[in-house]
Amino acid sequence: MTITTVKPTKPWMARPAQRLQSLGVFLAAIAISYFVVQISDFKGKLAYLTVFFLAFMVLDFIYQYLTLSKSAAKDAIARAVIAFGMAVVVFPIFSILVTVFLRGYKGLHFSLFSLDMRAASMNDPIGAGGLQHALVGTFLMVAIALVISVPLGILTALYLTEIRGRFTKPIAFLVQAMSGVPSIVAGLFILSALIYTVTRAYSGIMGSLALSILMIPTIARTSEEVLLLIPSDLREAGVALGGTQWRTVALVVVPAAKSGLVTAMILGIARVAGETAPLLLVAGGSDQTNLNPFNGPMASLPYYVWKAYSFGTAESVTRAWAGILVLLIIVLILFTTARFLSGRKG
Amino acid sequence: MPSATGLPQRRELTTKPRFSDKVFRGIVTTGGLSSLLLLGLIFAFLAYQGFSILKMEKFSFITGSQWQVVLNDSGAIDKANTAFGIAPMLVGTILCAIIALVVAVPVSVLAALFLTFYAPPALKRFLVAIIDLMAAFPSILFGLWGFFILMPSAEYWAKLLHKYFGWFPAFKMEVPIFTRSPFVAGVVLAIMVIPIVTSISREVFAQTPLDRVQAAYALGASRWSMIRAVVLPYGRSGVVGGAMLGLGRAMGETVAVYTVLNIVYQVNWHVLVGAGGSVASMILLKFGEAGAQEVKALMAAGLVLFLLTLIVNSIANAIVAKSGGKGR
């Protein structure tokens, strides 16, 4: 009697012959896209991509229709279209990242962080001057905005999750409405409410206030999501041990949500660090380092980029890209930290 | 009742909140009302500053297409010749936002479908991370990139559109200037709203009830027929809501539009012609050299923009909140 060992099979997987045929379809589509671009008047990288996609779709449809069925062919078309949509979404992201790094690194040098523009013009060679004033300004304004927004944002989130009073629904609605306020409207508001009526001068604090309006909804919404994830067992346990609501929230709920709340702050910073329009309206913008947010106009990174871009010469545009690169790196660091924190919690 | 054995005094049991709780609730409620207060203040101050202009222009502030300030000899505003009307900019805002949605929504829905039903987990995590990152890019970055990198390509696409679809009224051109057109601005805006629409659509699609998905597969559906029969009907209203959120964002965008759009004070429905408008960018453009009266008019324009985005966003949020639960 012979022992037969059954070889495990995976009938749902593609057989080698099928894989080879699919590869053939793929290569044929590449060949077609090459010839079409050579012959027709469509040109450029995107033309290759588009023609390849169309060719692949048609060939795959025919292949599936002949080997399998009509519904498999439809499925193949849908798959190709959906993958193409994804590619279209991803393409600009990589284009932006690559562009900023390639164009920005030429403008980087060490004195960028130790000099400001008081002795240099935008048209000077890249080595002259730097963006210290812009970094300091952005840092100060965002820090003050954070000091204002964190209490208000987290209190709003606590109201929505812990108190759950009469106004919960309207406030949830208003917070969402507020997160849609255009940034320029925030600038106009500070302009109309404070600058034209009270101070009559640009200053960093006005920039901070304008940024707060954009920051509060971001912090409130993220914090709310985080606080909703805290199991209510924890709250009940706190109350059952005799804690008042205040002590339960302060000693149990908020510590449990700590990393999430930090994430909310970081996302808030990332939201406003690149805001340009409101700062153009209310913070003025200067060429020298200003450490006093209450007096005198204050520069910021987006303002620096804006100004350098507006100059329009080769040197100034290089400066603009370098500024954008620094700003993008800051956003990337903030974003990665936020991801890391929220990932660790889960 | 003090006792000799040292037992603690009996506590009074009550359901009334303690003093500390009252203070806590008071503070949190006050903080919670801050958004109401801020929105109210924004409306109040913009309306206060813009009131005189709105009163002078009445409805023609929205319908009029002239924007000129004429001062008489005493330096006061000459009411007969001064006109503030934001119709061209309003038309431009809506036009750019609609182009943005026409480009962004199909692509975003496809991407959301890919992320939810096609992507392997590791790829999905990576793609979701970079799409979220894209939502955090500063708008001036989109502006610069749009101006230097996207514009040449977009111009070429515009020429193709004009060549092959020139019979379509919106693609007509009297003057062949393809740079800095509403079409280019719309494409830049589309790239800015793609992350929003994609992530909302993805969240809605991910909520599709698993039993319906599996029922479709059990009945022999292919992946595409499952999506068509279950996911799309279920997620339709959520996608509409996400698209409207993107619309709100596109309407309020300032700097990115300003860098790529050639702002011309003229109602222009021809999207490929290099002349357009946008309320937000117009405010930035005119703000620099505006006199006292003109600034008030800009405040009034800001009020219109504020209300417009508020309405669009509110409808969008209501739709997103109500989405789900339907479908076959």
UniProtKB/TrEMBL annotation, chain A:
Residue ranges annotated for the ABC transmembrane type-1 domain, each copy included: 135-338
Pfam families per the UniProt record, alphabetical: BPD_transp_1 (PF00528)
Tagged with keyword Transport: yes
Subcellular location: Cell membrane
Transmembrane segments: 20-40, 46-68, 80-102, 139-160, 172-195, 201-220, 249-270, 320-341
Keywords tagged on the record: Cell membrane, Membrane, Phosphate transport, Transmembrane, Transmembrane helix, Transport
GO biological process, one term: phosphate ion transmembrane transport
Molecular-function GO term, any one: phosphate transmembrane transporter activity
Topological type in the membrane: Multi-pass membrane protein
Keyword Transcription carried by entry: no
Major location category of this protein: membrane
CDD domains per record: TM_PBP2
PROSITE patterns: ABC_TM1
SUPFAM superfamilies from the UniProt entry: MetI-like
InterPro entries per the UniProt record, alphabetical: MetI-like, MetI-like_sf, Phosphate_PstA, Phosphate_transprt_permease
Family: Belongs to the binding-protein-dependent transport system permease family. CysTW subfamily.
Record protein name field: Unannotated protein
Species in which this protein is naturally found: freshwater metagenome
Lineage: unclassified sequences, metagenomes, ecological metagenomes
UniProtKB/TrEMBL annotation, chain B:
Location in the cell: Cell membrane
Keyword Nucleotide-binding: no
GO cellular component annotations of the record: plasma membrane
Gene Ontology biological-process entries: phosphate ion transport
Topological type in the membrane: Multi-pass membrane protein
Annotated InterPro entries: MetI-like, MetI-like_sf, Phosphate_PstC, Phosphate_Transport_Permease
Transmembrane portions of the chain: 26-48, 89-119, 126-151, 183-205, 226-247, 267-285, 297-320
Gene Ontology terms for molecular function: phosphate transmembrane transporter activity
Keywords annotated in UniProt: Cell membrane, Membrane, Phosphate transport, Transmembrane, Transmembrane helix, Transport
One Pfam family matching this protein: BPD_transp_1
Domain ABC transmembrane type-1: 90-316
Cross-referenced PANTHER family: PHOSPHATE TRANSPORT SYSTEM PERMEASE PROTEIN PST (PTHR30425), PHOSPHATE TRANSPORT SYSTEM PERMEASE PROTEIN PSTC (PTHR30425:SF1)
Family per record: Belongs to the binding-protein-dependent transport system permease family. CysTW subfamily.
Name of the protein described by the UniProt record: Unannotated protein
Organism field: freshwater metagenome
